[in-house]
Structures are given as C-alpha cells and as structure tokens.
Design brief:
homodimer; 417 residues; alpha/beta; seven-stranded mixed beta sheet; 16 helices; 19 strands; globular
Chain lengths: 417, 417
Amino acid sequence: MPSRPNESSFEVNGRPYRCPARPIVAICLDGSADEYLDAALLRGRMPNLQRICLTGCRVLARAAMPTFTNVNNASIVTGVPPSVHGICGNYFFDDSTGREVMMNSADFLRASTIFPAAAAGRKVAVVTAKEKLRDIFARGLIEAGGIAFSSEKANAAQAKTHGIEGVEEIVGEPTPQIYSGDASIYVLKAGAALLRKGAADFFYLSTTDYIQHKCAPEEEEALAFYAGIDEQLGRFLEAGALIGITADHGMNAKQRPDGSPHVLYLESYLSEQFGAGFRVILPITDPYVAHHGALGSFAVIHAPAAVSLQAVRQALVELAGVTEVHSRDEAARKLQLPKDRLGDLVVCAARDLTLGRRPEYHDLAVLRGPLRSHGGRYEEMVPFILSEKLRPDYQQRLACDPRNFDLFDFLLNGVAV
Amino acid sequence: MPSRPNESSFEVNGRPYRCPARPIVAICLDGSADEYLDAALLRGRMPNLQRICLTGCRVLARAAMPTFTNVNNASIVTGVPPSVHGICGNYFFDDSTGREVMMNSADFLRASTIFPAAAAGRKVAVVTAKEKLRDIFARGLIEAGGIAFSSEKANAAQAKTHGIEGVEEIVGEPTPQIYSGDASIYVLKAGAALLRKGAADFFYLSTTDYIQHKCAPEEEEALAFYAGIDEQLGRFLEAGALIGITADHGMNAKQRPDGSPHVLYLESYLSEQFGAGFRVILPITDPYVAHHGALGSFAVIHAPAAVSLQAVRQALVELAGVTEVHSRDEAARKLQLPKDRLGDLVVCAARDLTLGRRPEYHDLAVLRGPLRSHGGRYEEMVPFILSEKLRPDYQQRLACDPRNFDLFDFLLNGVAV
C-alpha cells in the first residue's frame, strides 16, 4: 500500500500550484471529441466516467489552436498558450535558415513543464503513448527524480534515462503496437500500476488518437476502446485519486458524401493562381502518417516575396471550405501563436475539409479507414472533466471559457479539499 | 385513434421530400447546446431521448450563422441558408431607407416554408413558443388547411386565423407565461394532444430558450425542464412517430470571473476611435429582453462613408475577444448571409463575450440571472437526433458536416422505412 503523498506548493510559468496530499491523475485523451464520451456514456460503457461526472463536474473547454497533439499537450503541461511555449505544430519553416524544422525535442519548448517543479515534492510520472511526446516533456524530470516513458517504447525504458525499468513486468503486459487502441489503454494501465506500487503519485497520462482517426464515436471499436479507458479510471478512483480529464483536440470526418477524403491542395492551387514559390506547411505532419496522411484542417502559407499577400489572402478567403485566413500578426494575436514560427498567412478549413500541399505529397493509400482528422476550429472544443466539486471561485471560472491547458490549475488549486 | 397518415411527395426550394405514412415530429429545442442533453442524460432524466438515440442516431450539426432563433428556425423550415431565405436576425438596418427594420413577418422570408406543400397531403401543425415565430411561419399554412399557433397566445387561437380553436381545452392546460420553461413544454404537450386527437400528423414544434438563458446545464431547473421535454418525447414514441430533434443555436455563459455580464460596447468604442456616425446593429434584439438584454455574440457595423473600412476592420481585429471580422462580401459568402441585409462589417465574439452598442442601450437589470447568450461561432454546433436508423446514403451524409436545416430532409427522406 503506497504511503500518503505529500502536500506541496510550487510555481511554474507564473502560475502558483498547491498540490493536495492525494494522488493526482491528469489525463489527456488524444482526439476525444465530446461525442466519443457521449456515445459510450449513452450505452453504459463508461460507468466510472459517469460516476466522476456526477461527483465532480463536466464541461467543454477550448483547446489551443491549431488543434494538434503536440501543441495542446505542450499547453497542458506548461499551463500557457503556444505564443508562450513555442510549440505550434509538429514542424515549421524557418525563414532565417530556409529549412523545415521538426519540433520533436524539448529544445523547441520555451516554457518549463510543471513536472520538474512538481517532482520536488512528489513522485511524478509522465506516460505517453507516442515516444515523440515523451521526448519533449521528459526534460528535467528524470534529473528531478521522476519517471517518463512511452507505451510505444515501454520495453526500452531504463532507470538512468526514464527513471524506471522493467515496465512490462510492472504493467504485466508486453509493449503494445503504436497503431492500436492498446497503445493508449497501456498508458493508463501503466499509470494505475505505478500508483498501486507506490512508484508515483502525480501523473500525466497522454494517449494517442489511433482509434479516433479510424472510428466514428458510435462504432463498436470506439465504444470498446472507451470501455477499456473506463476500466482504468475505476482503478484510479479506487486508489482515491483526484482525476482530471481533457483532450488535445476533437475529431471530425473529413469526407465527401461518397466517403472519399476531402482535401483542398493549397500549394497546387496557389501555384496555379500566382506562380511558383509557395511553400505550404502542414504542421500535423509527423512520422505516424497512417493516422491522417498528413492531412488536417490547418495550414501555414509562405508566399514568394513578389506576390501581394493581400491578393493571396483574398483568393484564399474566396475558396469554398476555407473558414479563416489570418496574417502572421493576426494569427499570433487571435490564435495565440508564436509569431516567429508562423508564415505569411494561416488558413483554417471547414468541419469536413482538410488542407493539403500537392497530391503527390500525400499517400492516401496509407489511411486505415475513412479520413477523420483535426487541426481547425471545429476540433477546438474538448471535454474538461474533474472528479470532484470545485471551490466557488473555480466553479465560477468553469463558466468563463476555461481552456484545456488550465487542467493542472483546476486539478491542483480548484478542487474543494 | 387517429387514422394512418398518407404517404405524400412534394418539392420545396429545390429539395424533393417524400413523406412516409407515419406521424412526423420535427422539434427545434431553442438554445439546447448539446451539454444540456448530456447533463440530463447523464443523470437518467431523459430516458426517452436515450432510447431515441440508441434506436436512431445522434450527432452534432452546424447551425446557420448568426446563431439566433429566427435565423435558424427560418432555415430549418425552409431547408435553405439565410442567403436564400433572407432572415439574418431579428432586425436589420435598411441603407436605402435609413431605417432599422424588424423582420417580424413573413414578408421578409424570401423562400417558402415546407408547410403549405406538406399540407397538401398531410395534416400539418406548427406550434411555437413565441408568437413572433408563428407570425413568420404560418403564411400559407392556414389557407392550406393547416394549424399554427404559439403557446404564448394559445388562448387566442381561432379557427379562421390559426386553423384551430379551444387549444387550452385540447391541451388540458391554460396558456403558459412566456418567461417560463412551461412555455416550451406546452409546445410539445400541444403537439402530443393534437396527434392523439388526430387533428395533425405532421408537426413542427419550436420551443423557447428562457431556461437556457437562465440556467447552466447541470442546474436542477434545467434538468427538470429537460425531464419535462422527455416526458412528451415518450408520448410521440408511443404514437409511433418519426422524431427529429435539433436546435437553433447553443448557449454559453458570457460572464467575467466575478459573474458580471461580459460586454464589449462596439458603438462606444468605434465612436471614440473614429468619430461619430457609426451604427451597430445587434440582430438578437427583440421584445423579449429579459432573456439576454439584447446582448449576443454577433454584430453588424454600419460605418460613416468618410471612414476607412480597412482601418475599422483592423481596429476591430485587434480587440481582445473579437474572433472574426468580415466585410459585407466575405460575410455573405462565408456565413451564407443575404448581402443586402448586412452592413459594412460583421463581427463575431468569443465564447465568453457579448457585443453591445453603448451602455445606455442595454438594461442589464432586466436579466434574470447571469448573462448567458449566443449568436457567434461558439454557439454553432447543435444536437441533431433522429429516432430511427438512416438509409446508407443518408448515414454517409451524416458524417459530412450536416446542417440543422437538413432536419426535414433527413427525417422525411433519410429514414430507412
């Protein structure tokens, strides 16, 4: 039986945190549009989540734009928007060097995560599904005595580099395939096992959206997935944990009525209209292409110097399915993005549309099922669930446009204990 | 026991409809953000809705912008967007006459409702909560043998003008107060009574959002309201009706963390910045001010001729809480609005913010509770629920950005019968 955790206080990125003397479990359910929870709850497949919502609170919160995984996980673990932490996608084009740069390491993170500070008083464990996220968020945590590993590489965890080893033995299951729902369930199983063992008492558990890219909410595979998540929530409840759940982004079908992928190839279009020299950055692009074929609902445009940005903006606005076009300055201000990692224009697409570069950049054959994706405004609202009632001031704030990256603030400071 | 209704076919505004030989009940639950249904379902307060969702389907659909009652009811009953039907709010400023014009009669509707055509083969009844909606949608229906009345003036219905009289006797209850949840429940009770009596077999039932402006989803008054709605859904299910449910718009708290109303006074601001002569139209304004104090998240700006629209646009974009600013042309295209009933610029506000004219135009003392309102992009996604499974082609369309104004199309043409 693990001992009672310590109460502790710390401050990160200007936010003070007071950590109650209870196990803390913060969960980011990747790609979990509220409809997934609704479909499972409606069918009685998430009894523990139902209990959590009734004992605590459930609202919708606004994610950070663009609605991508790294952007929002970075926001949640730092408590600040992308304009501050700097992660605005999986990659960007660096005008000064003329190179496309993958933001796949902590070097690109301009704000500290809350983990090293939390680890001063608590046993912190960060478990992600994808290794790429672990790489970004582990910085400083292992040195501070914490644990950080991914289910994707659970069997590669070493005490020196991950703060733990023998993960497969602790969890009681082998390392899962990354293209599976199990890769996510494993994240929660690992958290529950570490909590039971007393190896950690302060968790950030971040899943992957393989299931959500593949399945609509009411499909049995999705329902079974959420039932699996729910089983682990039950283990955290049994252990007396304070639980906070949110998502990095929602998920929508991006299809034509015949079921084919719905894509607007921006680089092709702009080149036809204005000539060569356009570079369209799709910040969803990552090595896990089977999820989405690098197609999302957000794009950054770098235009050749000779072309009128006003004319390009106007042409983009007139395209059916383009919902927003922002200049660099407007995007930095309105979408809270880091100005130096943007392009000349930022484009968002409709609920049912993705933005592509040129057809030859996108291998649609890799898609496992119909195209479902995210990145734009229609994947912005996400669940925000806390397992206990809030203090009156935080209860009031819950009605004032809460953000998904307020999760640790609400969980540590807001719960009436 | 009513006789079995006729099968019938008709076409309205370019859409063909085939009406199955069953009672048809289309319901617009005013202001019903999905969170209201979630909160009630989670607590077991809507067992009939749960049954409907499990037997049929439940998704989110996109409402028409601006997310106001008349705009979306007009869209639902015509099957076309505001750019076609012309109703873009409760009122507009007519540049040609220099007058603010209330759009409170069918004269402003540029497309036919589906009701007169449906009434050729079916016994059609339109029941609204507010009299203002009845006035707009009754045109041609009474002459075609249909019924149209409001719960607000149930006791004033006459055979000649409303197609029915003695409503209070039929429903078994007196005319409710308009500022009440009962005004909405009465709409459904009247529908169920007319169906049972055999007086109608094709319904459009449209409620009012008094409760949603007043209460957050988890408040007991809201839960009890939805339990009351659910009871009537049960009566339609018992009668073997095909049921379709959507909403005209969602609802969000528009408050500061201290609970006070969150308002940006645009006319004051623009006058300070650019001088006199601005006219800000708030199309939410109607005689029922206790709901919202004429404060919503959408405004239309008429600027004096001497001022640079580009400069005004830029100033508006830079305001915190302003999420979108469109020129007249852009708004007409991107928001599907009638160009001749817009102004120079159209402005949308954030999830937690409303747009006002000047403080003296808004009597915040009339608000019954904290400010909750709608009108912008954050009230755009609404429930879309059908009581039976769809044909494969409509099932596929359900994944392709369905609109709330596709309700009759899905209900009449989409259900697998």
